[in-house]
Amino acid sequence: MDMVSSDKFVEDYVANLSKTQISMSIPMWDCHILNLQTSDAESTLVVRIHHSLGDGTSLMSLLISCSDELPSFPVMKKPGSAGTGRFSTWFWRCWNLLFLTWNTLVDICMCVATTYLFKDTETPLKAPSGSVAFTSRRIVRRTFCLGDVKSVKNATNTTVNDVMLAITQAGLSRYLNRRYGKAKISDNGEWETNLPNTIRLTATLFINMRSSPGIYALEEMVKKKSKAEWGNKIGYVVFPFKIALKDNPLDYLKDAKATMDRKKATLEAKFRLFMAKVFVKFYHTKLAAFPLTSMWFSNVAGPQDQISIFGNPVAFIAPSLYGQPAVLTIHIISYEKKISVVLSVDDNIIPDPYNLCDDIEETLKLIKNTTVSLRGLMNN
């Protein structure tokens, strides 16, 4: 069997696996070893775990605890205070508190409005109903050089998460433009738009709610009163993607950073986590369920060093899920010097997920080349 056939076999195997459910009468996890050489690895280990056992941070901790040697992880930096003097420090703390309170009140109102009133535009990425949670999923991935993402991050004073959100937004815009009509390039080299004037496309963006948000060994997570708690400790915010074709690729990064900075200055994620706990336990309502956004988005930092399990080096890590009420879920995972975009799609609605991967990859190249050009102009 050639490499292309091997890759397709593994992809189809995982897709068929998503058609089945985990039995509740036995431990809610299983492992599948596919002893088949692919273009990435000598063999593939597929681990299926019920989400009730833990979130991405918990399961990543479980993975590294199974490795032969504990790897290092990116350090989570805490934001510093704006002022150094006593008065300026007091002023900025009061201002930030007022800003946080106002943003939270606005987001709580938007939370209710999004649940009952505002709906996403009917696009080729929009689920027709919540019944898509019971359909099978095709899981594909595309891997980039982490150094390219970091070079854009450093040149634009943003974060890795900002860059990945930006290239996702741009990739979605290019993909939808193609889906709405045959994409054409005008005489001056610019893409002709087939997009409607206004598209409301939101994502459920998950956030680690632990007081210590890094990745820790399993031994540390299961300790009593540990700040790195085991389990599902995630909240989420509704993140609006601005779908449009922009002449300057850096405009996608500006939009993503501005929106993400706004989401950081709010308690929306904690409020939604509170709603899920209270309403599910005492009063069932729409507010306790996930909003019907067009997609889900998650970003998890993986090991900075290569890990091995029982002497077998791990070539790649690709987390994903099925059973969600969205036809598209994007997971971002960094590992060693690479960063991967993992798509989980309902291929009855998104039949060409590799085209979306191509659009995301092409956007990263455009943004990187633009930052390099601007840096060259500044140096001259």
SSE layout and pairing:
Blueprint: H1 3-17, E1 29-34, E2 44-49, H2 56-65, H3 86-116, E3 138-145, H4 146-156, H5 160-180, E4 200-208, H6 218-221, E5 234-242, H7 250-264, H8 268-282, E6 295-301, E7 308-309, E8 312-313, E9 328-335, E10 338-345, H9 353-379
Parallel strand pairs: 4-6, 6-9
Antiparallel strand pairs: 1-2, 3-10, 4-5, 7-8, 9-10
Subcellular location: Cell membrane; Endoplasmic reticulum membrane
Protein name: Diacylglycerol O-acyltransferase
Domain O-acyltransferase WSD1-like N-terminal: 11-164
Provide tags for this entry.
alpha+beta; single chain; 380 residues; 39% helix
Written account of the structure:
By secondary structure, this protein is an alpha+beta fold. 39% of the residues lie in helices and 17% in strands. The protein contains 9 helices and 10 strands. A 6-stranded mixed beta sheet has the order 3-10-9-6-4-5, sandwiched between helices. It has a two-stranded antiparallel sheet with strand order 1-2. Strands 7-8 form a two-stranded antiparallel ribbon. Strand 7 (308-309) and strand 8 (312-313) form a beta hairpin.
